[in-house]
Amino acid sequence: MKPLYKVYIADDHTLFRKAMVNLLRTFERVSEVKDAENGKELLALIKYEAPDVVIVDLQMPVMDGAETSEQIIQKFPEIKIIILTMHDSNKFILHMMEMGVHAFLLKNTEPDELEKAIYSVVEKDFYHNDLVASVLRKNVKDRKTGQRPVFQQAELTDREKEILLLICRELTMKEIGQRLFLSENTVRNHRVNIMDKVGVNNIVGLVKYAYETGLIT
């Protein structure tokens, strides 16, 4: 039996938030849904009982999505964060990726993609969609014109590059092991070594590194 997840949502637009709550409750593997009007209320809910995933509107009064995410990452690092936004703002998305946010969705996203993102952030630590890819490609162009710094090139082995590319394609450690005929623990050890060489501490950092160094084009 597949695991079930608790999901909380914070959005100041009541009709949208309540509609989202009703939608989330239809997802097969979402066991509990709670909602908050802003980031401050969401943090109060989390302190009482932590969820697996939070869905946070980027623009809210009292405490917006960026500040809320920063607080959650600092105080509850095990919680996965999905940001909802009306606009594909490169600046905000890139900044929050660097903070450690796990997924970004536009508010007009189809329900199927929202459900996929929830499961992906819990099971794979990141949701790599078209929105994220476009932001990272734009970042690479900026970096080429000197607007953004590049990662220091790490000396990755061919096997490590292969594993990194499969991580970027959102395969789990088990799926990568099956594809490469390696044990899950071996793949996990490779991932730790890659992170150490690259100088990042999460999957988000690995994906960003893969774009900035040309492993993904």
UniProtKB/TrEMBL annotation:
PROSITE patterns membership: HTH_LUXR_2, RESPONSE_REGULATORY
Protein name, as recorded: Two component transcriptional regulator, LuxR family
Residues of the HTH luxR-type domain: 149-214
GO terms assigned for molecular function: DNA binding
Residues that bear 4-aspartylphosphate: D57
GO terms (BP aspect): phosphorelay signal transduction system; regulation of DNA-templated transcription
Domain Response regulatory: 6-122
Phosphoprotein found in the keyword field: yes
Classification via InterPro entries: CheY-like_superfamily, NreC/VraR/RcsB-like_REC, Sig_transdc_resp-reg_C-effctor, Sig_transdc_resp-reg_receiver, Tscrpt_reg_LuxR_C, WalR-like
Annotated keywords: DNA-binding, Phosphoprotein
Origin: domain of life: Bacteria
Keyword DNA-binding set for record: yes
